[in-house]
Amino acid sequence: MMPRDIPPERRCLPLDEWPLADQAAWRMAVDPGNVLDGPGRAAGWSPKTLRTVIAAYGRWLAFLILHGWLDPNCPPVTRLNEDWLRAYIDTLRAQVQSITLRNRIRDLAEALRVMDPAVDLRQLRHAARCLRAQAVPSRPKGARTVELDRLAELGCEIMAEAETASVRNARWRATRYRMGLMIALLAYRPLRRGNFVALTLGIHVQVHVQGIMIYLSNEETKNDRPYAVPWPAKLEPNLREYLAVYRPMLLKGGKSDRLWITHMGTPMTEDGFYGEIRKVTLKWLGIAVNPHAFRDSVATFLILKNPANVPHAAGILGHNTTNTTNVHYNQTPAQAAQGQYHAILDSLLDPDEEEET
Predict the structure, then answer these.
(1) Yes or no: is domain 143-356 CATH 1.10.443.10?
(2) Is the pLDDT confidence value at 303 over 60?
């Protein structure tokens, strides 16, 4: 049932309340299949992508219900009425920011694509492209972009404070050290928040005498490509210290394979990390930096150093195309791009690491 306290025009129809034909089409789309049949078109999607597309399609169905336009006996493709789509876009335009509007229409197209391979999506995709061209960020990213060397330095400062703050209790120092290591690592290895928080010892983080590696399988990355990079050499001693001293303090005798542990002895969550890192950066830098802003900083300052670094930035961020990097992540002001590069990354990356990336 849809929550009754949500205005009708903002409701999203849950999957189990979709028309039966739509539910059946979705089950086929996400079916992993077998050797003979093969997987459905959405079988390889991440849980987050599945939730997003389900929500977009549920919003569309709720809109049709509101206006009395939903015939549950008709297949999904028959509902792509031009007048209905225009009315839906106008409704969303009054409710959400332009980027969210574009995403809702794009995800609606994706839902229909995987549910009905024969559907003609040219009109819907044209609308998504037009909305993308019109989209502007609701909040300027530039104000939240901090130099990479400052972020890495901040993480090291916080770890140093934890080691020297003898007047504080052990758990406070362990929590502080863990947060410093997270910030420093994110500056060097700007993983997406979900991947970063879910790092698991022995699977994603493999510690050996000769070195430490970070691995993500292709099923765990947004671009469907495996990710394998060395743990930053400068932070190897910090990780070993965290694993030997501070992480056991946080676990309090408990057991977990997850790398990041909270002061409660439980694995860190995405929301917990998001709130904690904003709180810490606001205190130390005077600006609340969310985890995704680290990725903005990578693109901005690599490209600011040299516009030819766009492919390197795209590779580090896990983008399939450089267009994504330029459009959504590069926050370099035009005049600064034409001027001098402020030597930001030189103190952050070793020369051999720069060449590698």
Answers:
(1) yes
(2) no
